[in-house]
């Protein structure tokens, strides 16, 4: 079982890179959003440092959605999804492995690049460390919640917009507590409480989302 999961994980990483949903496109999109914000807000460094964590979290959320609509759609189009359903691995485990590969290919590079992009928004050192920790803890929830929308729209040829409409409201709690924890260095809110809630949201999504996505994929085949 572990060998099959490892082979599926590597397959998903190769597909993500080939379809343009890998690290490069996500980081470039992340960079574009971070770059245009100072032009829209102005050169006020104090203002940029205050809104910097929120901007980076919104950029991470939107960058995570890139390629997420293809998580199951490409497999449904070429028949691979039918073969995955007939595999010895439970469909829930297959969904979890595909989500983990998407997180490694798309979200992990964003977490690594966040401190550099935070400097562009005048975010100080302690706030950068806090922001990176919150992104590391919260982005798994974005991926696994997004997998539910990707499974629901897998049979649609242009379901990216519909997937975003389904997923974005579900990610609002992650965004709220992620930004609250990231802004804890300003002294307005404590860090531990929103951070623990953020971790709980990610753990809950990792546990529950594969079952919901697998149920949607099974319903699609009927």
Describe what this molecule looks like in 3D:
This protein has 222 residues and is mostly helical. It has one domain. The chain is 82% helix and 0% strand. It is built from nine helices and no strands. It is elongated. It starts with a helix and ends with a helix. The model has no long low-confidence stretch (mean pLDDT 83).
Compact overview of the structure:
By secondary structure, this protein is mostly helical.
Q: What's the end-to-end separation, in Å?
A: 27 Å
Q: How many domains is the backbone divided into?
A: 1
Supply the number of helical segments: 9
Strand content: under 5%
Number of strands: 0
Mean pLDDT: 83
Task: Report Rg.
Answer: 18 Å
Label this structure with key terms.
222 residues, mainly alpha, 9 helices, elongated
Present the secondary structure layout:
Elements (H helix, E strand, L loop, with lengths): L1 H17 L4 H19 L3 H21 L4 H9 L1 H6 L5 H30 L4 H28 L7 H23 L9 H29 L2
